[in-house]
Amino acid sequence: MDAFFDTLETRLAARPPRPFQLPGIVLREAAVLVPFLVRDGVPVILFTRRPATLRHHASQFSFPGGSRDAEDPSPLHTALRETREELGLDVSGVRVLGALDEVPTLTEFRIQPFVGVLPPESRFQPNPDEVEFILEVPLSHLMDPSIRRVEKRSAHGREYEVDFFSYGSHVIWGATGRILRDLLRHAAELPGAGGGISC
Q1: Mean pLDDT of the region 98-113
Q2: Is the separation of the CB atoms in 179 and 103 below 8 Å?
Q3: Closest to 112 (Cα-Cα) out of 82, 136, 133
Q4: pLDDT-based confidence at 23, cuts 50/70/90?
Q5: Which CATH architecture has domain 2-187?
Q6: What are the C-alpha distances in Å from 159 to residues 113, 152, 162, 199?
Q7: I need a labelling partner for 16 at 20 to 30 A (CA). Which of 7, 111, 143, 186 fits?
Q8: What is the average pLDDT value for the chain, to the nearest integer?
């Protein structure tokens, strides 16, 4: 798996992440970590299910992360701090591979996603106020085009695409789906990813 992550890191470094810019729109900063784990030699991606009691995006799957605090020196610091707070995880051993394109949300945030690899010995103690449960999905499953569908939506006078990825009874969509689509675009041709996706 080291070769796969090395190659993905090189791919991400070769194309700097694109910021979201739209004249007249000012969005608050946020950041997330897209966490890889290796289970039995297979790369999996970790998602968190948000509790139904939350004000925004209740019961949706997300990546650990949140809004940038004034004390956060960088968006990466935000992503790692939020990962530590949500998952009870020691983030000192996270290998950060790079960043993906910024993603806007209807709740007026622009999210900077970072891709990272968690240490194999990682142990989680999820914060029940922020995480209902953790879902681990093999990358090969996410690369299967048959589990993805796209719907057209409109907001603020603009049409956009919403990606839906199914895993059993679970559906990953929204901003998390857009972030995932960007990651899969990078990973599609890498050895060891498995499958393919057309983005």
Answers
A1: 92
A2: yes
A3: 82
A4: low
A5: Alpha-Beta Complex (3.90)
A6: 23, 7, 10, 17
A7: 143
A8: 89
